[in-house]
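TA notes, week 10

Several of you asked for a full example with nothing omitted. So below is the full record: structure tokens for the whole chain, then the designed sequence directly under it. When grading your own attempts, check the secondary structure regions first.
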């Protein structure tokens, strides 16, 4: 007999395949664009065009994520994830069969639509399904699968690069398409979110879901708590404008801020363009830079495991503040090394000296590790759980829009920025991570070991306190 807790973890693993898809793309796309086989098939991409191609997925994903709130409320969390997986698979199949760059660009935009649809809803679904005592651990499953995908993507691309035809760059897209289909098909057997069912007035179905996925006997109490949190506003239709109403503005701005500045940490610049970064730091050959990129994927995965195990014990503030400060120090060190030892040769940035090169490489790995155990895990959970159930889907859609629009801008300009200034990008990312840590220290309430309804009450009391002055 499988316990309710184990069932929830199994559901978390399957729905988090949406994260695996994101990771596979993130881990492989940098290597794919640097493959000689792609150049032979379609010609060499310029620096500017490279940035546009890699980042365009974020543009369509951001627009899709904005619509995901409506889809998640209308179709349900379950079917929103399923349709996202199907659309992602279509885009990946088109990428694998592309014969020109325009077709690759269009396929990548379609892939982004599916990615934005699915990944935006997974955290909402898992936060609403899991009991509060394991909510953080369950919700971090998404990030765990992202890191697994990143590591796998690096090594799939490294392995396929040994093929001497176009299958070298098509193989990563084929793997992504297969996993997208697995995600979509499996969602047919996943339950609806009990909070979404209550929101729709389907109380008997919600009770059945809670009975199946709770080990405790407090089913009626939890159901009444969910009903109570929705009762006051159940007759009103949630809207995007209401997310910024006076009652919710503080938490809405906080959620949007941390989701946007998560990408100003530059983490996707490091992951997307890892082959370029390691080439600048002393790995000039394609295979060496690909392999170094794969090691970064392993570091990312290994450092996510402690957070997966202990996020509910650590709470939310400590990882955001401690991780942010550690990342700032790493960027400060890298920027200083490039400012001191970096130079441009024939338009390419290089760092002189073996010791500075290895120091930069070590600091890149340390940065990735610190991001993995802290911001990567906590930010999406916190931004999701501080919003009330009725507004959660739309609020998270706005947060994800901010996240991907900032990521789009950073990823688009990163190749040119990295080649134009040896140290500038790292000092900019250092400032952003430090500033975010300070904001979290000053304005972020702790939500450790609180149910979603208790978190709602916490913010309601803070809003009432603020209005009294």
């Amino acid at each position: 007999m499988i316990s309710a807790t184990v069932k929830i973890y199994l559901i978390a693993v399957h729905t988090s395949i949406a994260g695996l898809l994101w990771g596979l793309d993130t881990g492989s796309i940098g290597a794919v664009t640097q493959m000689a086989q792609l150049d032979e098939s379609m010609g060499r991409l310029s620096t500017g065009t490279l940035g546009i191609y890699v980042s365009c997925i974020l543009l369509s994903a951001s627009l899709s994520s904005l619509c995901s709130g409506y889809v998640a409320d209308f179709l349900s969390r379950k079917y929103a994830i399923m349709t996202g997986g199907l659309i992602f698979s279509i885009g990946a199949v088109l990428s694998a069969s592309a014969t020109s760059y325009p077709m690759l660009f269009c396929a990548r935009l379609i892939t982004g639509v599916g990615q934005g649809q699915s990944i935006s809803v997974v955290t909402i679904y898992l936060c609403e399904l899991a009991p509060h005592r394991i909510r953080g651990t369950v919700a971090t499953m998404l990030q765990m699968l992202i890191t697994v995908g990143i590591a796998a993507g690096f090594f799939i691309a490294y392995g396929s690069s040994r093929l001497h035809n176009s299958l070298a760059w098509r193989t990563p897209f084929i793997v992504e398409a297969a996993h997208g289909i697995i995600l979509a098909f499996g969602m047919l057997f996943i339950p609806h979110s009990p909070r979404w069912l209550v929101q729709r007035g389907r109380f008997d179905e919600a009770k059945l879901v809670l009975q199946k996925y709770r080990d405790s006997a407090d089913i009626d109490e939890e159901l009444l708590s969910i009903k109570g949190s929705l009762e006051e506003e159940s007759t009103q239709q949630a809207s995007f404008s209401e997310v910024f109403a006076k009652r919710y503005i503080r938490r809405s701005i906080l959620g949007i801020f941390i989701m946007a500045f998560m990408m100003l940490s530059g983490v996707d610049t490091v992951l997307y363009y890892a082959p370029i970064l390691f080439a600048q730091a002393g790995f000039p050959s394609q295979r060496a830079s690909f392999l170094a990129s794969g090691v970064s994927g392993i570091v990312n995965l290994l450092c996510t495991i402690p957070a997966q195990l202990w996020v509910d014990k650590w709470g939310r503030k400590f990882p955001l503040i401690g991780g942010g400060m550690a990342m700032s120090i790493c960027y400060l060190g890298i920027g200083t090394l490039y400012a001191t030892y970096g130079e441009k040769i024939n338009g390419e940035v290089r760092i002189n000296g073996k010791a500075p090169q290895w120091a930069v490489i070590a600091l890149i790995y340390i940065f990735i590790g610190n991001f993995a155990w802290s911001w990567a895990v906590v930010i999406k959970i916190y931004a999701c759980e501080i919003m009330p159930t009725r507004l959660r889907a739309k609020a998270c859609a706005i947060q994800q829009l901010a996240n991907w629009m900032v990521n789009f801008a950073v990823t688009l300009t990163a190749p040119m920025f990295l080649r134009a200034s040896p140290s500038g990008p790292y000092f900019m990312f250092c400032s952003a991570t430090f500033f975010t840590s300070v904001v979290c220290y000053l304005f972020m309430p702790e939500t450790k070991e609180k149910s979603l309804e208790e978190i709602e009450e916490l913010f309601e009391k803070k809003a009432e306190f603020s209005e009294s002055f």
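The chain has a mean pLDDT of 87. Use that as a sanity check on your answer.
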